[in-house]
Amino acid sequence: RRKHPEKISAYKEKTKHKAAGYVAAYRKRHPDRVKAQLKNRKPMTPEQKAKRNVRSKKKYQEDPNYRISQLARTRRNHLVRRYGITEEDRDALAKKQKHKCAVCRRETKLYIDHCHKSKKVRGLLCHKCNVMVGMAEDNGATLRAAAAYVEEASI
């Protein structure tokens, strides 16, 4: 029925970021409506879920752009869910630390260090320093005692 389906799909691809912005703005303006719509939505049947999973797996295997976007989305969701920060927050923290470990000041791959009690992000550490802090169970006294031991026992 459509005269130029390729033009329509190209236009949709080109403007999809705008559509996502409109959806986000609508959800922000009308949270009650969105909540009601979600509440009234029918749950998917196991057959529908299976079909969706097959389509997603096939697309993931065949489309490298889709695969990259899914991996990025997974990483973004992990940062927000686990640490309560965005990629921009993490990048700002790395820039503040000059892309160096907060403990040893080495320029290497950095990992997020957080307090296990308060769940607050403290900074970015290299793998070795992150393990060291974790093995000391975030106890400053243990770390100070270890530092004193190393200083005294130095040959």
Molecular structure report:
This protein has 155 residues and is mainly alpha-helical. The chain contains seven helices and two strands. The chain has helices at 5-29, 31-40, 46-62, 64-83, 87-96, 127-135, 140-153, and strands spanning 111-114, 121-125. The protein has a two-stranded antiparallel sheet with strand order 1-2. Strand 1 and strand 2 (121-125) form a beta hairpin. Helix 3 (46-62) packs across helix 4 (64-83). The N and C termini lie far apart (84 Å).
Order of strands, main sheet, comes to 1-2
Shape descriptor: elongated
Mean pLDDT: 91
Largest sheet report? 2 strands, antiparallel
Amount of beta strand:
5-15%
The helix/strand class is: mainly alpha
Based on DSSP secondary structure assignment, what is the total number of beta strands?
2
> Are there runs of 5+ residues with pLDDT below 50, and where?
none
Distance between the termini: 84 Å
Number of helices: 7
Helix content: 55-70%
List the secondary-structure elements in sequence, H or E.
HHHHHEEHH
How large is the radius of gyration?
24 Å
